[in-house]
Amino acid sequence: MTTRQTTFNFDLELDRTHTDSDKWDKYKGQDILPMWVADSDFQSPPEVIEALQERVSHGIFGYTHSSEKLTELFIARLAEKYQWQVEPEWVVYLPGLVCGLNLAARTLTDDGQTIISPSPIYPPFISSAKFAERPLIKAPVVLNEGRWLPDLDAAEAQLTGKGGLFQMCNPLNPGGTVYRREELEATLAFAEKHDLFVCSDEIHCDLLLDDSLTHIPFASLNESAAQRSITLMAPSKTFNIAGLGASIAIIPNAEIRKRFSKVKRGIVPGVNVLAFTAAEAAYEHGEPWLQAQLNYLASHRDLLMTEINAIPGLKLEHIEATYLAWIDCSGLPADNPHRFFEEAGVGLSPGLDFGNRRFVRLNFGCTRKTLDEALKRMKAAVAEL
């Protein structure tokens, strides 16, 4: 590995329309800016690109497995960033985080047991309960002093007493909330009281936009949290390598890990060789690029906070993490905010997919030029109402 770069150009405009991109092909041939699905328009760290080029030049792509080095890098990262001491045997590699949510739903619940999920939430949380044929209880996500958090009291009132699974998302998608320690401890107390396992989606944990905040993995709280949990992480959002498919489940409880592997066996494929290559390079060399990206995203967040809240009918709460803005359109005189902005040339994620049709989600993992144009179109559309 020879590439060493200290400055990165996140304003670089790259044409993705010829790359079979889900994000960009959705509006192929239309003058609509794609700002929906959560991948960014940034080139991955140069060391990741170089590592992939070196691996491809070898020319043989047989069956593969993770390297000891990758596991060591990941464990060292958790210890350094989050003060979480993880054992190598706890680590299970997956070809994506969504399959991890579905595996956890099947692993941690029996027939008739309930899955409790925040709402609004990333859609695969909801579908994982549906696919596992488990009853779903929604814990409404409400504003708490300007931060979006699940209402555990509202969820408790719906519980049947049969145990089950609590799904959490930290940082929250959508909403961007980073859980504080006391909020995690309250979640743990809730799980202990009602004999619940916890699946914690922490895929955005590296994308904190406020220097004053620290991500705390749920399972790192104490032994009780560790033994009742599955934690899902990945380098995919952090380093923009989601299309390669490399995710990680951390499962401290040996019995749960055994059950998880049994449910997975013969159904979920292994991680491919290029995904492992990219993950290893990202975790070993990607930190300077990540810090530069966070600075860039934070400036986008600050711009959005100013501009969106100046548009009549729209409201945006402070985004602590992720590059996803959860915009309240309830003051907008438009029956379908998603369609309204789509017709104005801005392709956002519909809030209905997450559980609230009066919202839209905007992906600001893009160049400043793209963001400026999107805001220009949104302002003009609302001004014409």
From TrEMBL:
InterPro entries: Aminotransferase_I/II_large, C-S_lyase_PatB-like, Class-II_PLP-Dep_Aminotrans, PyrdxlP-dep_Trfase, PyrdxlP-dep_Trfase_major, PyrdxlP-dep_Trfase_small. Belongs to the class-II pyridoxal-phosphate-dependent aminotransferase family. MalY/PatB cystathionine beta-lyase subfamily. It is an enzyme of class 4 (lyase). It comes from Enterovibrio norvegicus. Residues 41-377 form the Aminotransferase class I/classII large domain. It comes from the Bacteria. Signal peptide: none annotated. The keyword Ubl conjugation does not apply. CDD domains: AAT_like. The keyword Magnesium does not apply. This is cysteine-S-conjugate beta-lyase. Keywords: Lyase, Pyridoxal phosphate. NCBIfam families: C_S_lyase_PatB (TIGR04350). Its cofactor is pyridoxal 5'-phosphate. GO terms for molecular function: cysteine-S-conjugate beta-lyase activity. Its EC number is 4.4.1.13.
